[in-house]
Amino acid sequence: MYNSTTPTTEANPMQGTKNGRPTKYKKEYAEQAKKLCEKGFTDKDLADFFDVTEQTINNWKGDHPLFFESIKSAKKYSDDLVVQSLYNRAIGYTLTEEREEKSDTSGTKSVKVNKQIAGDTTAQIFWLKNRQPKEWRDKQETEHSGVIGNVTYTPEQYAEEEKLLNDMGLD
Q1: Nearest-angstrom CA–CA distance, 63 and 119
Q2: Where are the beta strands (DSSP E) in 37-163?
Q3: 69-87, pLDDT tens digit by residue?
Q4: Whole-prediction pTM value?
Q5: 3 — pLDDT class (breaks 50, 70, 90)
Q6: How does residue 25 score in pLDDT terms, banded at 50, 70 and 90?
């Protein structure tokens, strides 16, 4: 077996190559992965599609910068679409519908109608819990301060406390 530390000689034509099985990677995989990730594919989904392991997908990302960049940009594109859709769902949006209506002269005509879709409270809560978790999470944390438990006094401290209570009229 040869590795990159083996000196180059005529008897060693594999000098500088990696050991192991040849890669299944093909340069067209970058474009395929991009299209799949734009449809929401995860690395696991890509591994299933290309009939390899997730580790192989990660290796390809490291070995093939174009493959890595195509996946990264496609996932960002998909995530941005979901963020925009969630945002629109949370605040509400206007939808334009086209429908057929009866006309006095020609029988029917196509009419565009704008419909206002109200914001969805579930989407609003989801957005706020994730964007402002301290203010909107279900579990609120309350900080307590002070001493909890029994207080142990020395005889001198006890006498001092007793004197203070007597002075205040609280025997």
Answers
A1: 45
A2: 93-103, 107-117
A3: 999 999 999 999 999 999 9
A4: 0.58
A5: very low
A6: very high
pLDDT of res. 18: 61
The whole-angstrom distance between residue 94's C-alpha and the CA centroid of its chain comes to 27
Return the residue matching tokens 């093939």.
64
Q: Can you tell me the distance from the alpha carbon of 96 to that of 29, in angstroms, rounded to the nearest whole number?
A: 39
Q: Map tokens 């989801």 to a residue.
A: 126
Among residues 117, 32, 137, 130, which one has the least CA distance to residue 83? Answer: 130
Which of 85, 57, 52, 82 shows the shortest CA–CA distance to 71? 57
Q: Letter for the amino acid at 101? A: E
Spatial contact of 29 and 50, defined as CB atoms under 8 Å apart: yes
Q: What pLDDT does 35 receive?
A: 97
What is the Cα 118 distance to its own chain's centre?
A: 26
Dist CA 79 CA 31 (whole Å)? 18
From the list 70, 87, 78, 63, the residue with the least C-alpha distance to 32 is 70
Residues with Cβ within 8 Å of residue 50, at least 6 apart in sequence:
24, 29, 56, 57
Structure tokens at 128: 């706020």
Query: What pLDDT sits at residue 168?
Result: 83
Give just the sign of the alpha carbon dihedral 65, 30, 35, 130: negative
Residue pair 90/130 in contact (Cβ under 8 Å)? The answer is no
Residues contacting residue 35 through CB under 8 Å, at least 6 positions apart: 74
